[in-house]
Amino acid sequence: MLPAIEVAIGLAFLFFVVALAASSIVEIIGTAFRLRASGLERTVREMLGEGDAEVATKFIESRVVTTLRETDAAWDIFGRPKQSRTIKVEARRKLPSRLPARAFADGVVDVLTDVKGSAGSAEDLFARLPTELRDRIQPMLDETGADLVAFKARLEQWFDDAMQGLEAMYRKWSRKLAFIVGLVLVVTLNASAVHVAQRLWTSSAERDAVVAAVDQLVPETPPADGSTSPTDTATSFSEVAEQIGDLEATRIPLGWGDVDVSFSWVVLTLIGWLITALLVRLGAPFWYDLIGRLVALRKGLGAPNAAADPASATTQVVAENGQGTRTTYAQGATERSATATPESSPAARLFAALPARR
């Protein structure tokens, strides 16, 4: 069973690194094209609506939101930041990629306060609000009354609900793009799950090298101090290249060298590419967790022999013999004084060696 687990470790690490690289590229694309910010702006405008007061526009231009705008608008292919003023996108950068619910509630209240200053009465204030916003906050006000803190809490809940829907849409889009990006990476690296499994299964040397490299690259337990996790996505293509370098460092049989093209090779390669690309969609965290489980299982099956186990009796005897101390072990002082002589029977020796029942 041990070779099968080692093959599974190699395949899991292959899927992990390709999934991590694919998700990193997807995030870089999303950042470069401001997909999160665009989706957030669209959602906010739908929530706040348009009207005489232009609540959505005033919210986007409010001080609470402008202070959260990202400093850098985009990154080049090597991960160096490009300032927004140099690439002339400041006019399009209206919202950050992520907006806290508290900032949303504070910004809405600030805008409503400004509208109140220009309104002559409560009825005038309410009439100035867009129909969508008015219909939404009316039941909130029926529940909270004039309690501003409670009203902000309801605004935060409303925003969180809207963000869950937006995040679900973004994840759906990300999975589709990750499959396409992953397929491109798989073809470029010739990372066929079928061929990799065949090579690792038939070559114990390659299998041992891969497992040893995985042990070095992936710790047995994730860092508990909150430091960077191996499942964190990269923010530049140079970091993606480093991730691919980690994959090549494991000596997993990849690439286009020594390829003997035949009909069966083409069929198996296409199947292997598709399998790898599909499994990459499960995401890097899934495969990272599975690697840890497989490594732990492998170490459990491949238990150390007695000489390698520091708690074994063999290790204790070897250590005591090297120090010139007693050659009997696991006995207390009273039991040691009752040790049978060499001339005694085997039964007597066993009886004397065994400790007294406690």
Describe the structure.
This protein has 358 residues and is mainly alpha-helical. It folds into 2 domains: 1-303, no CATH class; 306-353, no CATH class. It contains 17 helices and 2 strands. Helix 1 crosses helix 11 (204-217). The radius of gyration is 32 Å and the shape is elongated. The two termini are 40 Å apart. The relative contact order is 0.14.
Summed up, what is this model?
This protein has 358 residues and is an all-alpha fold. The protein has 17 helices and 2 strands.
Order of helices and strands: HHHHEEHHHHHHHHHHHHH
Query: How much helical structure, as a percent, in the residues?
Result: 55-70%
Question: Structural class of the secondary elements?
Answer: mainly alpha
Distance between the termini: 40 Å
Structural Rg: 32 Å
Number of domains: 2
Question: Key features?
Answer:
single chain, about 350 residues, 2 domains, two-stranded antiparallel ribbon, 17 helices, about 0% strand, elongated
Layout of helices and strands, plus pairs?
Blueprint: H1 2-32, H2 35-48, H3 55-60, H4 63-66, E1 72-75, E2 81-83, H5 84-87, H6 101-118, H7 122-128, H8 131-144, H9 148-189, H10 193-202, H11 204-217, H12 237-249, H13 263-280, H14 284-301, H15 313-322, H16 333-337, H17 346-353
Antiparallel strand pairs: 1-2
Helix pairs in contact: 1-9, 1-10, 1-11, 1-12, 1-13, 1-14, 2-9, 6-9, 8-9, 9-13, 10-11
